# Entry
Amino acid sequence: MSIASTTVLGSDLFTVSTTQEHELGTRAVFQIKDSSGNPASCEAVYCKSLATLSANYLTEIPLVRGTDAFQIDAHVTTTTAAAIADTVGDKFLAGVPLVASVSGDYLWVAVKGLIPLFAGASCAVGATVHTTATAGLVDDAVTTHEVRGVAPLATVGGSNAVTDSYAFHDIFVVKIS
# Structure
């Protein structure tokens, strides 16, 4: 994915700020380019980081849970997913920060459209992906929590890597077993 984007609402999808520029939960569509330079779009939600987050790793996006709405404190693992969605059918919103951040940063988190996503070695093109024991990593090996709404656009080769993926709708992590 290219680091060039169109400025939307006075912000750039690929930057962080220590100053809040928009209301948390604001959504915007950004025009970006895929890894081959082709134009695409990405919808993102404006959030606050409460921890160190890596770019392209799956995170939970808390919605309405007290005062932490749209404040991200960790990458998703199978263990953290089980703590949030512990009954079959339970789900929560997830997204992918496109830049690294530290606690206190404000940033856009991708939830729909073209999204570079950290995926497991040999994760197949178009595969249904699941949470793993590794923070923020998704893979096509089945676990108790499925990551719905996003699929890799190419097979990941050899080792864990960031791959262009596409989310047709908001990304949700759902307990399936």
Remarks:
- The chain has one domain: 27-175.
